[in-house]
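Hi R.,

Here's the chain you asked about this morning:
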Amino acid sequence: MLTKAQIRFCLDEMEKMFPDAQCELNHKNPFELVIAVLLSAQCTDALVNKVTADLFKKYQVPEDYLAVTLEELQQDIRSIGLYRNKAKNIRKLCQMLIDDYGGEVPSSKEELMKLAGVGRKTANVVASVAFNEPAIAVDTHVERVSKRLAFCRWKDSVLEVEETLMKKVPKEEWSATHHRMIFFGRYHCKARNPNCPECPLLEVCREGRKRMKKVQE
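And the predicted structure, written out as tokens:
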């Protein structure tokens, strides 16, 4: 596991690499963000943005998603994985927003997690991006980077990764660190082909050193 000094080094280097890292899902308000994050499960942000370019013109408030049939909504998001289930959850979520929250997206993680299709990761993203609440949402990139760098253990669950990062990263840096880790994992420390030879974190990365040793053998 990394020391405090090594973690600080990693955070600083990631900031240098990706100083402007931010949410890449296109949205104009918290409601669009909730829909976009829900659609992004097991799907790329690029594809979601392609679909929501038209979707958000057609559907602007929760009532709009309930004014069409489930089948019509499914057709509108058909190119996205798990579209049938996501369409059902979007309609349930919109009904809950109307019934329980006056049509507005709640700002707290606890209330967000009550919405259909909204898990802990989605709630963290929305609270952080839309409402500036400190949060670390653990997606596949954040989990992979955290484990490769030994911020946490290989066997840790997603929740354990989140809790460990919350302990080891200063609270005021949670949201920025979440975005920088995503960019680092998406564009540099990729799942299949991490760029270890040119990585500024190689000296403290257990996984990177193992990979480089294999290459040299």
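The chain has a mean pLDDT of 94.

Let me know if you need anything else.
M.
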